[in-house]
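Review this today:
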Amino acid sequence: MQFVEEIVVDEFLPTVRSMLAGELREQGFTQSDVAEVLGISQSAVSKYAHGDVATNDRIERDERVVSLVEELAEGLAAGDVTPVQALIEIEVLIRTLEGGSDLLADLHEDAVPELADYDASFRVHDPESALRTSERVLSSLRGGLRLLENASGFATLIPAVGSNLVACTPDASDVEDVAGVPGRIFDVKGKATVPADPEFGVSEHVATVLLAARRHGADVSAALNIAYDESTLATLEERGHVTAEFDESDDIVSSVSAAIESEPDATVLYQTGGMGIEPLIYVLGPDAESVADAARALI
């Protein structure tokens, strides 16, 4: 049994580190400098330099890998890219190469041929499989929630009813296709607190707003509700958001639909409250992390 992560550890990382080490040495880095940037020992750098570490020819020849390594080496040498930024860029490339029938997926199926022949409803590396789609949504949602939890001051934007950050699958049709926080996000002693890991089907209210906006043409996949304030709304408009008002005392779906029809490019929906209804702002976006970033910018 071999997992794709083992391919990454045993073949991809040694190959990319070797390529980066070589590029950095050409940029004038000392062996010590290379070791510090890559987070490895000087002896490991020496092994890369002398070809004592096995690398994968297919990975070395891949144009995307070559291009990224060259770009990162130049950025690291110039000080325009930090080691953390380089790590993130490599992580993004790994996720790309794991999908569908891409490089790492192919290497995995070469190592475990039974995967390609397995009689199942989806291939393990099929990017369109329901399992992988759901996991991508949850991963993005976790990332967005981390941004909100770590954003000093976000608690001031949380309404009395609590906030919820939600995200949906590409073909979402009902609340079961929308993931959110069970119990919502609350202000606990001035800190935004997420009580549980995100799940599908746990948000009805914010999910309904998101789905209604999508059904009427809004190109969005995530939403967050925050407390209404005229200055907050004005700041969102200053930052380029198109806003549209709706009446939450009426049927939400029809009200949101009317708002989107009046402002097709709206990325912020709001209602100013009513009898027993707290005024709220709903920030919409392409994914949970983008929505969380938009909220952080308000602090």
The first strand starts at residue 165 and ends at 168.
